[in-house]
Amino acid sequence: MALNYIWVFFIIAASVVAVARFAVTGDSAALSAVVDSTFSSAKSGFEISLYLTGVLTLWLGLMRVGESGGAVGALSRLISPLFSRLFPGVPKGHAAHGAMTMNIAANMLGLDNAATPMGLKAMAELQTLNPDKERATNAQIMFLVLNTSGLTIIPISIMAYRQQCGAANPADIFLPLLLSTFVSTVAGVAAVAVAQKINLFSRAVVVSLGGLALLLAALGFGLHGASRETVQAVSVAASSIILLFVICGFVILAMRRRVNVYDAFIDGAKDGFKTAVGIIPFLVAMLVAVGMFRASGALDFLLDGVRWLTSAVGADSRFVDALPTAFMKPLSGSGARGFMIECMQTCGPDSFAGRLSCMFQGAADTTFFILAVYFGSVGVKDSRHAVACGLIADLAGVLAAIALAYFFFG
Description:
Layout: H1 2-25, H2 29-69, H3 71-86, H4 95-108, H5 112-127, H6 138-148, H7 156-164, H8 174-196, H9 203-223, H10 228-256, H11 261-296, H12 298-312, H13 323-328, H14 333-347, H15 352-363, H16 367-378, H17 386-409
Helix pairs in contact: 1-2, 1-11, 2-5, 2-10, 2-11, 3-4, 4-5, 5-6, 5-16, 6-8, 6-16, 6-17, 7-10, 8-9, 8-15, 8-17, 11-16, 14-15, 15-17
């Protein structure tokens, strides 16, 4: 029911704010902007689904090859100690384990084109274990929150935007951003664990999360201070090699088992079109609501309130200029990106707010977009505690980004 209330809130809040602004100022621009946003957002939702069709066709075809060749099963066995704790309702060796592993790995490497199809595949596999097809299971919620927390090792696109805006060292936000997104992920997992009564202090979880923390710390300190060109070269090379390794590995293992690779690919690819079409209503509904909320100016009222409160308590208010990115990120990735660029252009890419807006952009992912796409792909309507836990992860990432920005940049 959470998605229902969120959707209704966005629609009503946008309408009330737009009408109130018209009543006070007599300017009908706000009303027109809200109405226009419904059409533009609906168009965007369809275009995104259309783009996903090709990507889903490719990667769901490759996933079928990986399943037939045994590669996905091998991945499932490799991570079963950790996933058996985080996803106690998913049997060991289930196909969902492999798909979830590949999705999380792709997200960490910034491979969005691969991550989304793998995530949708994982959600479909988890749906096979769901006794109530319209109500999210514990496993589906944990997996979705892992995605909304947006753990990414190297934020190459953000550094590219910083370079375009004239930053002296576009990679200087690398380490604080990495730490922020890790905090967001841990907070999201902890929130779900509390709601689902999962013990996170088991050996498998502690070793896995501790090992990941050490890996991220080593990577962060190793690349901290490096030029953007160096970071980009490492990122592109590592991502490309891993991606090619996965594709070739799937094909080779399938051939060793004497699988008809081409037929397996075509068989899996057929599901891509069906999945993309099924997403359209859910995606359009959410994007229209978010678009109306943004166009109405409701976000400006939130910012003014935060600025007033900060000034009232005598706190440093430099972070407020970057907050539009933080507020928009759970709602719209493109909207948050626009606010990030606008902040760097207005305040300067090397200003406190300019750097912080970039950290907000990378600290978490677009929660409501992911909810609409992932749950919509399998027809889940009751998201239970998924929204709350996803927003907790977002809030933790925002607070961590603010604290780390003051620590690193004063």
